[in-house]
Specification:
Order of helices and strands of chain A: EEEEEEEEEEEHEEEEEEEEEEEEEEEEE
Structural class of chain A: mainly beta
Number of strands of chain A: 28
Order of helices and strands of chain B: EHEHHEEE
Strand order of the largest sheet of chain A: 3-2-1-28
Strand order of the largest sheet of chain B: 2-1-5-3-4
Largest interface: A-B, 16 and 17 residues
Shape of chain A: globular
Oligomer: heterodimer
Largest sheet of chain B: 5 strands, mixed
Helix content of chain B: 25-40%
Largest sheet of chain A: 4 strands, antiparallel
Helix content of chain A: under 10%
Chain lengths: 366, 88
């Protein structure tokens, strides 16, 4: 049974815990860590219970924290560090860490291994639980990287890391704006896997170029890892062949958004949170809804039960939607500090708070 | 020897009392401080050794150009390191 939710916000890390009150579940704020500091990403390592948090101090850069006791105490750990930039580097922009935008554990066969995706586009690996990090030069040095560009930030960023539960050597990453890349061998080699995605923000002749696609968020089905879902800048995409190809999906009221969550036990089921379009990033008709598919994206139903009946201008960002291991509980947090929870897959959403700081990421810690 | 002072907002992350160091440039003064307190470096400089974009440095109350940190400092200068309001 899920016990905690980690909510990374503009002003700290909020930890929610769950109390049973009769037949109802009552969530409450258990603790607030790093009050006042932006927390760009959190990770609960299900292998050993460790929590990791990435702070993005506005003045002093990225700092990492780790707790081995459920948040009672925290240690400062190493932040990913880019290597010295060669004088003849083919880019003027500095090789300097701007943000940790994704954190993921290695496989159950890789204790202490962690992955970190960053802005300006580097992927880092730790083999010691976050005590040190190494830039994956195999991806960083790809010549294609020089054509990546910023999506949401001034620099490219790796926001999604999917480790195949069948084979921990196979890792798929989503990059705004750099497409989808996959390694079959733990990072030694990489291939571009965004065939089928279309970028209407590019000149016509480049719209299908896999290397400049903007997948906003990439998630992988745990029950059938060949199935992946992408919320893209220009729509929604679905793959049934482990990212070898992508097919567009369409949902009403909109196919635009940032977040997507995949059911852990049913590869046909996923949730998206639509907004109008890239030029207008608010809910359609000012009605926040969730779109939900149970047939692999062939059709979608709109979930609005428990969501604001009045005008709502919430935007749920890339990491603002999370699902727990049961597949019944989801958490959804917006950039305006509103947090909703559901115990039944979105049949009914309940408002937890309308007064949190802007929410960057939500994650279940079970 | 110039005196290097860190603003309270930096001190709350890494306690850094004012200190005099032997240096004739701002960069040399910072390097001397970081030699004593390695943890402080990552709060002030990025991994390429550049001043973080939302950190400002004043020498005798004059804001310097942080791009090179090559400004010379006289023997009794005060080097004040502070968070820039742009990062707030």
């Amino acid at each position: 049974m899920t016990e905690r939710i980690l909510v990374g916000t503009r002003k700290g890390l909020f930890v929610l815990n769950r109390q049973l009150a009769g037949v109802a579940a009552l969530w409450q704020i258990e603790a607030v860590h790093f009050l006042g500091e932006p927390v760009s990403m959190v990770l609960h390592d299900t292998r050993d219970g460790t929590w990791h948090a990435a702070l993005n101090l506005g003045h002093f850069g990225v700092k990492m924290r780790r707790s081995r006791d459920g948040g009672k105490t925290w240690q400062e750990t190493a932040a990913p560090v880019y290597p010295s930039q060669p004088a003849d580097a083919k880019e003027e922009k500095p090789w300097a860490l701007q943000q940790v935008w994704s954190l993921e554990t290695g496989g159950t066969d890789q204790p202490n291994m962690l992955w970190a995706g960053t802005n300006p586009g580097g992927l880092f690996r730790s083999d010691d639980g976050g005590d040190s990090w190494e830039l994956q030069r195999s991806l960083w040095d790809r010549p294609e990287r020089l054509e990546w560009f910023g999506g949401g930030y001034d620099s490219p960023g790796i926001h999604s890391i999917c480790v195949d539960p069948r084979d921990s050597q196979c890792v798929t990453v989503g990059i705004s704006c750099g497409g989808v890349w996959q390694t079959p061998d733990g990072g030694a080699n990489w291939q571009l896997c965004a065939s089928g995605m279309m970028a209407d923000y590019m000149p016509d002749g480049r719209a299908g170029d896999p290397n400049i696609q903007d997948p906003h968020r990439l998630v992988q089905s745990r029950s059938n890892p060949d199935v992946m879902w992408v919320q893209h800048h220009c729509g929604m995409y679905h793959s049934r062949d482990h990212a070898a190809s992508w097919q567009p999906l369409s949902a009403q009221p909109s196919s635009f958004g940032f977040a997507v969550a995949a059911h852990p036990h049913n590869a046909e089921v996923a949730w998206f949170v639509p907004a109008v379009k890239d030029a207008c990033r608010v809910p359609v008709d000012a009605r926040l809804v969730v779109t939900h598919t149970r047939d692999g994206g062939n059709s979608f139903e709109v979930q609005r039960n428990g969501l604001p009946p009045e005008a709502s201008y919430d935007l749920v960002y890339r990491h603002g939607l999370a699902i727990d291991a049961s597949g019944d509980h989801l958490a959804m947090g917006s950039t305006t500090g509103n947090l909703w929870l559901t115990e039944n897959g979105g049949g009914l959403w309940s408002s937890f708070s309308t007064h949190l700081p802007p929410i960057y990421c939500v994650s279940f810690a079970e | 020897m110039p005196n290097v002072v860190f603003a309270p907002a930096i001190q709350r992350h890494v306690p850094s009392p004012p200190r005099r160091v032997a240096a004739t440039t701002v960069r040399a003064a910072l390097d001397a401080v970081f030699a004593e307190q390695t943890a402080l470096r990552d709060y002030i400089l990025d991994e390429q050794g550049a001043l973080r974009c939302h950190v400002a440095i004043f020498v005798d109350e004059r804001k310097i150009d942080g791009s090179q940190l090559a400004d010379t400092v006289v023997d009794n200068a005060e080097i004040y390191v502070v968070q820039a309001l742009s990062g707030g």
